[in-house]
Amino acid sequence: MGMEEFMALYQFAPENTEKVGVEIECHLAENGQIAPIAHRILMGIKTIAPELSDCFTYELSACQLEWRTPEACPIENLRRNILEVEGVIKEAEKKLRFSRIFCPVAPEDMPLDVYPDTRYLGITKDLPRQVLLAACRVAGVHIHIGMPSHAEAMAVYNKAVESFKYLCRLGATDQRISEYCRAAIGMNAKMDIFQKHMITKFFPPRYANWEEFYQRAVNERFDNDPRQLWDFIRISKHGTIEFRMFDTTEDIDEIVFWARVCYGICQQALAQNVA
Length: 275
Fold this sequence. Notes:
This protein is an alpha+beta fold. Helix content is 43%, strand content 16%. Strands 1, 2, 3, 4, 5, 6, 7 and 8 form an eight-stranded antiparallel β-sheet that branches.
């Protein structure tokens, strides 16, 4: 794939500039035990709230569920959008008899069932067990801030990575800090697992331009699928700057606060770029 084709994978929409979206991951449980029940829960949600069922999706682990805000929205509307989806999943918990576990790192003895998705089955076919375990155990909150164009996204990304250490500390709800993370920036167990098993660059790098980003994509083989880049801050294919370091949590106030911080970082960077 050439550079132009690679750049075309990233879809920017000027009308979504500075709009915010949130993705929340959790583990699913039956009778208090983490269980591979994602398919059943997703089918049940389609029956309970078909108009919002697209807000719910699966993860690599069949024991996880992800839900997201219905659409990119102004930061002022974010809480309302989160609560709308939260209401659906709480109703589903009662009707489908399951519970959610908000733990950044699940126990090592959790089931390793992979969701029966063609892409995930292909990814995990020859995956070492420790890497699969790492991918299944971690759960977080991802925050997206819309960007208007390739050029501005790159400029804002390069500015956002300057706040990486601060955001890692801000998003750490689990204080089980490893020796490595304590020596680096005082991060949590989830970040520790990522750096050991799931990412190639612990600190998101700056790029001189899109050509340099493309060369990394070719070298690390995510040029055909930007989702295979798992950096804690990244330019996403959805035309956003995505912040991925936050622990999972059921505290909506905390999520909205994190989103406001990320929004402020991007808003300031956009203003500086225009100036």
